[in-house]
Write a structure and sequence with these properties.
By secondary structure, the chain is of the alpha/beta class. It is 45% helix and 17% strand. The two termini are 19 Å apart.
Length: 284
């Protein structure tokens, strides 16, 4: 590598580092979640630990309690255990739709059997179910912990959950329905990891490439010169750079394969951008 090549590589690295830091700071600024408590006690301790992890990771949490949750858990207890940025209780003046719309993600710790059944049957008859339904309508991801509503939970079994297998099957099917609606299910102990995973997988990075919006049913082109039917990734492009960053990948979002040099440094944000567009990064 000669002096000019070294200087170009160094400048690319510096620019990419600054770009990555800007994007990461932008992501951190967007870490706003709505947390909906429905009243289940099973899993609550694990949920508190997970929500504290989210706060330590920079998340701003707005908590909303159902009437049942306020009776069983109480707003004072949740304030003490979690210290959310804001807390509301069903029955008091609260703009549930606006709270959801201002969030990147909706979290439902310790989901109850009753709320799971209502959601499975598309019933929105209270503040909590209305807010979850609002999130689904707006395409905002919902992550729910099933400790409190899973019929096979060991804690529930130990306290005398003696029902027929048909009843358990119905409860299991309710959870299957929630998954088909797009709700991500997890446990309270894994709530932090799953929330972070869903957030990163669905986060929309601002594009730095000026691209014209494609017209319906027409082929579109990108910087690589390839064309494709709307909605399908085709074509191959080669990026001859020592450092490949997110902006490089974003400019070739229509390509199915992006070839980079054998010695290229591909940043993590570049890999994330490729995953979002469906492109595969291949080394020579």
């Amino acid at each position: 590598m000669n002096k000019i090549e070294f200087e170009n590589a160094l400048m690319s690295t510096i620019v990419e580092y600054i770009s990555d830091q800007v994007v990461l700071r932008y992501m951190d600024a967007c870490k706003k979640a709505t947390v909906l408590f429905t009243g289940a006690l099973i899993g609550y301790t694990d949920a508190v630990a997970s929500l504290k992890e989210l706060k330590e990771d920079g998340w701003r949490l707005t908590v909303v309690l159902s009437k049942s949750a306020d009776e069983v858990l109480t707003a004072d207890r949740i304030k003490k255990d979690i210290d959310p940025d804001a807390i509301y209780v069903e029955g008091a003046p609260v703009n549930g739709r606006q709270i959801v719309d201002d969030s990147q993600i909706v979290i439902v710790p310790a989901l109850t059997i009753n709320t799971a059944a209502k959601l499975a049957n598309c019933i929105s008859d209270n503040l909590i179910t209305n807010m979850i339904t609002r999130a689904l309508h707006k395409g905002i991801k919902v992550v729910a912990a099933v400790d409190g509503c899973c019929p096979d939970n060991s804690v529930r079994q130990s306290i005398g959950f003696d029902v027929t297998e048909a009843y358990k099957t119905k409860l299991r099917n309710n959870l299957v329905d929630l998954v088909t609606y797009g709700i991500v299910l997890t446990t309270d102990a894994d709530l932090f990891e799953k929330t972070d995973e869903v957030f990163r997988a669905n986060f929309s990075f601002p594009s730095f490439c000026e691209q014209e919006e494609p017209e319906p049913e027409k082929e579109i082109s990108c910087g690589c010169g390839c064309s494709k039917p709307d909605g399908e990734n085709v074509g191959v492009v080669r990026i001859d750079k020592k450092v490949v960053g997110r902006m490089d990948i974003a400019c070739y979002g229509c390509c199915a394969k992006i070839i980079v040099r054998k010695d290229a440094i591909v940043t993590q944000l570049a890999k994330d951008a490729a995953q979002q567009t469906g492109a595969v990064i291949v080394r020579e």
